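In the lab's daily routine, each protein ends up as an entry in a very long ledger. A line of letters takes care of the sequence, but it says nothing directly about the fold. The three-dimensional part falls to structure tokens, numbers that each stand for a local backbone shape. The outcome of that step, for a single protein, is printed below.
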Amino acid sequence: MIKRLLCGNSMRKVIALCGVVALLVCIVPPSSAGINANIVIANVKPTELLPGETKALTLTIQNAGSYDAKRITLNFQSSQYISVAGSSGVSIASLNGWSSKDITITVHVAKGAPGGTYAIPVNCTFDQYYTVGDQAVTETMPEVSYSIVLKVAQGAIIVISDIVPSELEPGEKTDLKFTITNIGNFPLDNLIFSWNEAKGVILPVNSDNTKYIDHIDASESTVVEYTVVADVNADAGLYQLDLTIKLFDDECGGSRLINTTAGIVIGGGTDFDVVICESSRGQTSLSVANTGNNPAYSVTVRIPEQRQFRVQGSTASIVGNLDKGDYTIVSFQITSTNASFATQSNNLRVAVDYTDTTGVRRTVEKAVPIQSMSMSSEGTQFNPSMRQQQSIWKNPTLIGTIALVIILIGGFIYYKKRKTGNAFLTRFSRVKKE
């Protein structure tokens, strides 16, 4: 009974072992039923490059099939901004099924390459090798095409970081400066900068509107300068400048444009001329003229506090708006505060407050020369004729001349009267004798 039990267990083990062997035979295919060789690029390091950079790339080439691959050739082609440095072809003698191998190629990125993603085309040819029984079989596989995707970082970023000045006076020559900055991480060569104002109101003089820039390092700036003039008849306001930077790539022979805009103000401040046009006892009139090239808004003329003169009543007069070339007359009661009686020349300080074309409130102060006779400390009203009268009676030559004229006139009258008297006496004597 025991022997039969042992014999039964042995039979079950043998049957189980035979089942496992049969299962393995079903799972593992014979070599003649393997997977075709398939060459793929499994990995690329690195994938980020900079403009102008030459760098070695490591590519992992993998056989994704069970059959061996032989005589593998990969041909790399250049793109617009990325080229293969050195040999563009790489050969691998053989690559067993499911195995991989690293190869190295060197690429160069053009200096002027814009940031972005670029692909390098790759063509691959190979043969696959396997055995059927004792016989080796070699087959030439169809050519395979794929690409390597690389990212070019933004190497050079050009910006117009500053424009000085921001305002132009109509009709006046101004040095206009543009600051061009490379805020990227790679230098740039061979740039052309130009600008244009579409209405022709702002134009360069002594040169055209184009400047050549040889080199700008990363994180560095350069300044280009123009002498410009805004039309004297231009309306005050904000004008648009169209700015263009052209970058050349000597390696690829191409170029690209960077277009941007900026604003510049025509207008701003103006100037005034102030003169005394009339002065009578008790009142002095000032003529205020806008002699600049811009209008002035909300004009107020005032006499600031000063040592030599004092204003009785209001110290300011509201004028309103004054266009360029316009003038107005304002009057004040001005007295002298000088204690002496000596005649001297004084400057009256006059302030003109106005709003310019940009909305900024400004003040222009003028010194107006006037001739006055200093009065007592209590002050008297300014009268320019007083100095003339005083000067006449202090001139000894003039006084002597006047006295001589008076004496001559008196002598002449005396002589005429005496002559007339003698003639009368003579006639009287003749009559009496007769």
In short: The chain is about 15% helix and 50% strand. Residues 158-266 form a domain with the Immunoglobulin-like fold (CATH 2.60.40.10). The chain has a mean pLDDT of 82.
